[in-house]
Amino acid sequence: MPPRLLHPFAKPAKDGFRNLVKSEGVRLWDDAGNEYIDALGSLWYCQVGYGQTEIVDAVAKQLGTLNYNVFDPWANGVSEEAAARIADLSPLDGSRVFLCCSGSESVDTAFKIARKVAHLKGEPDRQIMVRRTRGYHGVNAAGTSLQGIAPNREDWGDLVPHVVEVDPDDIESAAKLFAEHGDQIAGVISEPVQGAGGVFPPSPEYLRRLREMCDKAGSLLIFDEVICGFGRTGSWFASQTYDVQPDLITFAKGATSGYQPLGGVILSRAVCDTFESDPEFLFRHGYTYSGHPASAAAAIANIDIIEREGLVDRANEIGVRFEAGLSAMVGDGLLNAVRGVGAIWAGQLPEGTEPAQTIAIRDNMLDNGVICRPIGDSLAFCPPLVMTDDDIDTVLDVMATAITH
Ligand SMILES: Cc1ncc(COP(=O)(O)O)c(C=O)c1O
Predict the structure, then answer these.
(1) Atom of ligand 1 nearest to the CA of 228
(2) Pocket residues for ligand 1 (CB within 6 Å)?
């Protein structure tokens, strides 16, 4: 009999999930007494590790003090402070922050903002949104349409129209689209480092050229930093790692390290100017839990920890160790290739490895106490930024053993 909980991204007929009972630091325990090192930060989100009482206490204190919405006419100090902290860490000077509860909500918000900006500028027919193959942008209506992982788009009926896909590596594909339809393109959405699609850092110049094309055509560039943000790529935002400024940044996950649901969109000053220029314009968008004080309190405490513990720099150290370990496996013939930056990495298994074999290797690693993510022919890692060198070495050892068995 399957469980009463319908699990996300799972076969509804499946039974036999691993039942977790405790999380602490970078470790988890299940009800069968097994211990796991989490080299995936849960679902690419836990920067500061589990059991951080500072965040738990901040959330509890906030809920006991004030819990109210921020729809007009209401405001509160903690939601405003979270927005200001995030805006100040971002590369977008003079930006403002819209808050929601997930990456999917942030993507659908950015999608609507891109089209609304075109509308406000007197170009209501500028509706095309560009996605990259392999991109993952969540599962809401716009995000499903914007994502470049085909199976996630299939059999849900008609999706949002006017979405066009470009090659994720060959920038000339986007150049051709812009040359033909630039004046109809409202925006381009791209993860700076594609995560769920398999951990693909951008090819050199890809993001910079996208920026140039958007500038020339008057289109908005949206960086989906739901995974990349909050230190993951070795800077607060990947926009800084790759030195390309988008118009909108979507974020979630690492914003609270998952202690509370929080997502959002950072709007550049130019986008804010468009919104603010007409005092009568009403931003007719928002979620009941936008700016939820508990999520805001979690974000502030989480950012405090990342700053105090130097976790953005730690991401780069983690990267050096992962890259060295995975490259050694390439040298030993256990892997075909290595991809990554900062603290997000993937090892590609030898040519011809089927997805089922990747899953079998992942299962072997789980049985030996290490959590990673199988994606096609690759194993992906996105560890908490508090992971020690010893734990990284254990992760890599368990991986190497699992591949050779
Ligand atoms: C880049 C990116 N965008 C959006 C999302 C969707 O976020 P959520 O699952 O919080 O809705 C994800 C989730 O993995 C993501 O990786």
Answers:
(1) 1
(2) 44, 102-104, 107, 136-138, 191, 195-196, 224, 226-227, 252
CATH architecture of 53-308: 3-Layer(aba) Sandwich (3.40)
Using the atom order of ligand 1, give the atom closest to the CA of residue 103: 7
Q: What residue spans of 124-263 are helical by DSSP H?
A: 141-146, 171-181, 206-217, 238-241
Among 40, 101, 107, residue to substitute to test ligand 1 (most atoms within 8 Å of Cβ): 107
- For tokens 């006017």, name the residue: 162
pLDDT tens-digit series, residues 202-237: 998 999 999 999 999 999 999 999 999 999 999 999
Q: Is the pLDDT of residue 335 over 90?
A: yes
* pLDDT confidence bin for 405, thresholds 50/70/90: confident
Give CATH for domain 20-52+310-404. 3.90.1150.10
CA of 5 to the centre of ligand 1 (A): 21
For the segment 139-154, what is each residue's pLDDT rounded down to a tens digit?
Answer: 999 999 999 999 999 9
Q: pLDDT tens digits, residue range 8-66?
A: 999 999 999 999 999 999 999 999 999 999 999 999 999 999 999 999 999 999 999 99
Q: CATH 3.40.640.10 residue ranges in the chain?
A: 53-308
Instruction: Report CA(333)–ligand 1 centroid distance (Å).
Output: 33
- Nearest-angstrom CA–CA distance, 144 and 28: 31
Contact 114, 132 (CB under 8 A): no
Interatomic CA distance for residues 93 and 110, integer angstroms: 18
Helix, strand, coil percent values for the chain (each to nearest 5): 40, 15, 40
The structure's pTM equals 0.98
